[in-house]
Amino acid sequence: MRSGGVRSGGRWARLVVLSVVGLVAVTGCGGAGKVAGDGGDALAERARRVADAWDGSPAATAWRTAGYHPTGEPVRLPRGGLHDGADQQAYERRNFKLAGGGLPGTAPKTGEVTWPSGGASVVRPLVGAEESYDALAGPSDANEPHLSVRAVELGRMTVATSRGPALVPAWIYTLDGYSTPLKQAAAVPSAAPRSPIAPTHDLPGLPLDRFLGASPSDGRKVTVVAIHGVCDKGPAVEALETRGSVVLSATVPDPDPDGERTCTKQGKLERVEVKLREPLGERLLLDALSGRPVPARGLAGLAP
User: Fold this and answer.
1) In principle, which of 32, 194, 229, 303 could form an S-S bond with 252, CB 3.0–4.6 Å?
2) Helix (H, G, I), strand (E, B) or coil at 236
3) Burial of 248 (C-beta count, 10 Å sphere; 0-12/13-18/19+)
C-alpha cells in the first residue's frame, strides 16, 4: 500500500524517458535532412517496398488474428473529458495526487483479453497498480493544478486493437469532482510479429515515435507523434495507401542547408495529423523507416 509523495518512475515511465534521451542524442537542427529529388524518390520507393512486404504476409495475418496489439490510446478520460484547462494542464503535466487510501497492495499477475466480436481470447501479464500509476503520474506538486485520486481498483475497459475493440483489464481511477473514472489499460501488449522487412538507416528521416489514433468520425485522419529538432521547421509525414496497409514516411526539412546557424542538438516530439484518401479501417499503419507497425503508447511523455 502506498500513499502520496514523490515516486520513482516505473518500467513504463522509464521506457518513455529512455526513448526521449535517445532522441536528443541523435536529432539535431534539421538532422534528418531535406527530402528532395533522389532522396524523396528513394523514400517513396522504401514505402512501397514496406507495403509490398507486409500486404498478404504471414506477419500481417498474425497481426490481425493473434495476440493483443493495441492500436489506440491506453488511457480513457472520464466521460465528457476533463472539466477545464487547469485539469487538462494537470493531466498533460502528469500532476496527480493520491488523496485516498493509497494504491492496492496486491493484484492478479495475469488477466484475460477478450473480443466481443469473436475470436480466441488471450491471457496477458498485468501491470501492477504502482507501475500503472507511475506511468500516469509524475512527481506531485500541490501548488500547481493537480488531479486528486480518491480510489484505485482493477476493472475493465475497451481498447482498440488490431483485431477490433477488445475488453481489457484496466486500472480504474476515481478522481475528485468526477462522476465517472479515468481508466488505464493494465494488460501488457503481445510482442509484434517479426517484420517481413528489415529497418533502414540509409534514408532521410526518423522512425515515428507513436500512433495516437484515427479520427472516430470517419477514420480518414490519423494522429501520430513525430521526432524533429528544436531549430527545424517541424516534421512532415507522407502516406502511401494500399488495400492492406498505410505506410507513413516521416522527414524533417532542413531550415539551414548551408550550415550557417548554430543549433543545439535537442529533439522534440510533435503531434502530426495525416489525412488519408480512405478510412484506416483494419489496414496496418506502418513506419517506412522501421518497417514495423507504428506503436500505440498513448500520451505519456508528451509535453503540453
Assistant:
1) 32
2) strand
3) buried
Rounded percentage of the chain residues whose pLDDT exceeds 90: 52
User: What's the pLDDT band for 304 if we cut at 50, 70, 90?
Assistant: very low
pTM, to two decimals: 0.76
CA distance 265 to 30: 10
Grid-cell match 517481413, residue found: 196
Angle at 88 between CA 275 and CA 268, to 5 degrees: 55
Residues 6+ apart with CB under 8 A from 93: 138, 144, 304
* SS3 category, 106: coil
**What confidence tens digit (pLDDT) does each residue in 242-285 have?**
999 999 999 877 655 555 556 666 667 888 999 999 999 889 99
Sign of CA dihedral 115, 107, 146, 17: negative
pLDDT in tens, 34-61: 444 455 788 999 999 999 999 999 999 9
DSSP per position, 125-175: EB--HHHHHHHH--S--TTS--EEEEEEEEEEEEE-BTTS-EEEEEEEEEE
Rounded Cα distance between 157 and 77, Å, is: 11
Report in angstroms the alpha-carbon separations of 99 from 104, 125, 146, 176.
Answer: 14, 28, 11, 9
Contact 257, 174 (CB under 8 A): no
CA 37-236-258 angle, to 5 degrees, is: 55
